[in-house]
Amino acid sequence: MKLCFLLALVVTCSTVLTNGIQPFGRVYNRHCLCVKLESRVIPPNSLKSVEIRPRGTHCAQTEVIAGLVSGENICLNPQSVWVKKLVSFVIQKQSPKRSSNL
Description:
Elements: H1 2-19, E1 47-53, E2 63-68, E3 73-76, H2 81-94
Antiparallel strand pairs: 1-2, 2-3
Keywords: Chemotaxis, Cytokine, Disulfide bond, Secreted, Signal
InterPro entries: Chemokine_b/g/d, Chemokine_CXC, Chemokine_CXC_CS, Chemokine_IL8-like_dom, CXC_Chemokine_domain, Interleukin_8-like_sf
Pfam families: IL8
């Protein structure tokens, strides 16, 4: 009986070590900030700030984080049409203006 238990324990441990198990299931990602995405339109007067985190080694998805006037931060769905327009607007505002005298 002890031999069967020991054998089962060794097989289980070797399976875990060779395949690796991510904590909290397959959707766990400790580098992405956004877990839940919001698609509803946020009124402009409720927005305090917008942070765009491009995909990279930290996260496979582009993250758009809106800071609300209430102090809450929410993650916006970057695939939503209105969020795409918001991202374009923010990028346009942040890019340096080119001088026409060049």
